[in-house]
Amino acid sequence: MVNQNTNKFLWYKLYYSFSIILDKRYADSLKPSQQKCGIKCPQSKVISLNQISDRPLQNGKFSKKGTQIKHRRWHTARVGVQVADTDYGGGVYHGRYFNLYDQARDQFWETIGVSTLSLIRRGIDLTVAEVHTSFVQSVVYGDRLDIRTRMLWYREKSMGMAQKIMGVSPDSRQATLRGKAEINLVCTTKGKAVPLPRDLVRAIKAYYDE
What we know:
Number of domains: 2
CATH class of the largest domain: Alpha Beta
Mean pLDDT: 78
Radius of gyration: 23 Å
Largest sheet: 7 strands, antiparallel
């Protein structure tokens, strides 16, 4: 019994030491230095709202205040939970919540008249730049979900949206908050921030009676 515990302790110690070495090598590979780690790590561009030249847009003209959406109109999308969204505990894995939000945003764009597919065909992408999220209650396979989406603001090249995951009772009479998020998007083409398409801005203004 003592030998088994000793062997187990030595194995954990070896595994822990090896993990530290791997973590250090990976961290070093991410540093912008001339060190040769033996692994070529491609550098990807991360778009930040603080790094783009983004002028606020208001009433079709650029201003310092930007356009805040005053109309609190929520778009509701019915989204289903797939088995692949769940983890070994039976609940939706936390990373999969963002897939649910994505599905709801796609339905939102289609509703206002400018679908995600139409943007992609023009080489335009609404890239997620920032996400602030809260997990309120667990979501499991078989739950009926309504995801509510609304615009918060938009500027020349970016926009902010709020989303809520609501669990709906079988009789559709009650809805409970399961999660919420605020997501900031940047309009991009080939990884470069570009102005929002005019038809998209017109569709947003029409939907919210701006």
